[in-house]
Design goal:
- This protein is mainly beta.
- Among the domains are: 99 residues, Translation factors (Elongation Factor Tu (Ef-tu), domain 3), CATH 2.40.30; 62 residues, 2-Layer Sandwich (Double Stranded RNA Binding Domain), CATH 3.30.160.810.
- Helices cover 6% and strands 35% of the residues.
- It has three helices and twelve strands, in the order αββββαββββαββββ.
- A six-stranded antiparallel beta barrel has the order 1-2-11-10-7-12.
- β1 and β2 form a beta hairpin.
- The chain is extended and about 65 Å long.
Length: 233
Amino acid sequence: MYGSSGSDQWPGSPCGPNALLPARFIFAMKFILARKVEMTRIFGEDGRVRAATILSATPVTVTQVKGKDTKDGYQAVQVATGERKAKNVTKALLGHTKGKGFQAIREFKDAEGVAVGEQISVDTFAVGDTVRVSGLTKGRGFAGVVKRHRFHGGPRSHGQKHSEREAGSIGGSGGRAGGRVAKGIRMAGRMGQDRVTVENLRVLAVDAKAGELIVSGAVPGSRGTWLKVRSTQ
């Protein structure tokens, strides 16, 4: 359901009944909704240590399947996980999920091969799979230009007593922007809570019994952040 080997055959191929499937038919995306636990390190068989992140990936339930031939007009699979009291969920969402409350609902575009009500567990992944992880980064609140945009600040001498971390001129005079703030000017403001996708991470370990997935490197967000994990070809 989630993948096929290179020995699969394409019965209608003009190259004969023993011809191999084209590459676009061999790959089927694996996907799951996980929660960030913490970072750790993994020692490989070669003795090298690798930074890794532990993800809690309990089974997710398919709540909706979209297709190009439906009113949605695109291929996607919607999954949900976690438990939430029904009184804390809107009636519209309860009607959509058949009366069950979930903590998180996410959508995976271009996914297929599953039916509504089916459960997907972490054992669909295997050690060595290449995945990409998407999620929201940590929220930093209101930040100045030095922290937010890595400005070096003003000089520390010649009367710069309280302006070491100021942004300086924004060029809003009549010459550059006509007396207004030009679009794209880097200024102080809200920092973080941006959707980031980290590519080419390797699955280092899969624990189906504990519902945990360990991937190489760092992933977005703080502990407890919901993350979308999907395989790449």
